[in-house]
Design a protein that fits this description.
Structural class: alpha/beta
Helix content: 10-25%
Number of helices: 9
Largest sheet: 7 strands, mixed
CATH class of the largest domain: Alpha Beta
CATH topology of the largest domain: Quinone Oxidoreductase, Chain A, domain 1
Oligomer: single chain
Order of helices and strands: EEEHEEEEHEEEHEHEHEEHEHEHHEE
Shape: globular
Number of strands: 18
Number of domains: 2
Strand content: 15-25%
Bound molecules: beta-D-glucopyranose
CATH superfamily of the largest domain: Medium-chain alcohol dehydrogenases, catalytic domain
């Protein structure tokens, strides 16, 4: 069968690979791959700097943002042929650390977790894949192809969970939210902010293309210059990973403000920061900076709820390009108006 493959450690090795059928050890649910979403992690994987496949294999199947349709599922698994599913990305380490043992593999302490399509495991970017029922997320049929957004949305339901848990250290009633970066992660962060009734301001470099209107259609304010922000943010969801943006926004946090960092970037090695002044400000305001990666099972279920509650036409506009599997490496080459690019695994 065909799959989205790369050679770990080798740059520019993305190709349409011929690989064997998915092994039963991957799980009892056999799935026909429908769509795989591409994100910055996939682009980094093809740079050869990180990523590892199934132990012993010379190529790895990538793709961790998945949508598929069940072909075979054992009785009692909770799945039937025809059901839509998304696969959970991370697996706990073989001898679970205390966090993994509690289903909090997103907080793995010993780093021995695996991730489908990223770390020591093949991904979901294939014509067929297998998954254990526990790691398969039911996607309601009404979501259709928008189910490919479940995994990226789970990153934000986890991020917001972090913000809530930090916020709950004292009275908590955020009103103003700043989101930095209007890619899929930033836009989904803004969507959740609006669903919660917060005022949302989204900062991005793009002056044209679909991003400004997507933000306005959510009822948010779109900014290309932080100096135009007229409010003090109670919450910042940072999705650029750019050091200067992180510092500039941390300075703006209001009392008991919480800033959640969701992005990473290779970026310049160093920036000048008046750290003493920033430290003073963070301390006297009880401000918190919290990093967030990956998602636990419950965050995927929350992500499905977020997508179901959203306007499907708005979500559809996040998927700006669909590339056939036969030409999938072209999905890695950024085009000016790209937001989320997906690979059609049947084409
Ligand atoms: C994925 C996460 C993963 C992280 C680090 C992200 O792109 O969405 O599930 O944990 O990369 O590998």
């Amino acid at each position: 069968m065909r799959a989205m493959t790369v050679v770990p450690g080798k740059a520019d090795s993305a190709s349409v690979g011929e690989v064997g059928e998915p092994p039963e050890a991957d799980g009892a649910v056999l799935v026909e791959g429908l769509l795989a979403g591409i994100c910055g992690t996939d682009i980094e994987l093809t740079s050869g700097d990180f990523g590892s496949g199934r132990p012993g294999a010379d190529r790895m199947v990538i793709g961790h943002e998945s949508l598929g349709q069940v072909l075979e599922a054992p009785p009692g698994s909770g799945f039937d042929p025809g059901d839509l599913v998304a696969g959970i990305v991370r697996r706990p380490d073989p001898e679970p650390c205390p966090a993994c043992a509690r289903g909090e593999w997103d907080f793995c302490r010993n780093g021995r977790y695996t991730e489908r399509g990223i770390k020591d495991a093949d991904g979901y970017g294939a014509e067929r894949w297998r998954v254990a029922p526990y790691f398969a997320v039911p996607v309601p049929a009404e979501l259709g192809r928008l189910g490919v957004l479940v995994e990226p949305a789970s990153i934000l339901t986890k991020a917001w969970d972090q913000v809530d848990q930090v916020g709950a250290r004292s009275w908590y009633g955020p009103e103003q939210v700043l989101v930095t970066g209007a890619g899929p992660i930033g836009l989904l962060a803004a969507l959740i902010a609006r669903q919660r009734g917060y005022a949302v301001h989204v900062l991005d470099r793009a002056t044209d293309g679909p991003k400004p209107q997507l933000v306005r259609d959510l009822g948010g304010v779109y900014l290309t210059d932080l100096a135009d922000l007229r409010v003090t943010p109670d919450v910042v969801i940072e999705a650029t990973g750019a050091g200067q943006v992180v510092v500039d926004c941390a300075k703006l946090l209001g009392p008991a403000g919480v800033m959640c960092l969701t992005g990473i970037s290779p970026g310049p090695a160093s920036i000048g920061v008046q750290m003493d002044a920033l430290t003073r400000q963070l301390v006297v305001r009880n401000a918190a900076l919290v990093g967030s990666v990956n998602a636990a099972k419950r965050h995927y279920a929350d992500a499905v709820e977020v997508l179901l509650a959203a306007d499907p036409a708005w979500l559809e506009r996040l998927i700006t390009r669909t590339v056939p599997l036969s030409d999938w490496p072209s999905a890695l080459v950024k085009e000016p108006d790209d937001i989320k690019v997906v690979v059609d695994l049947r084409a």
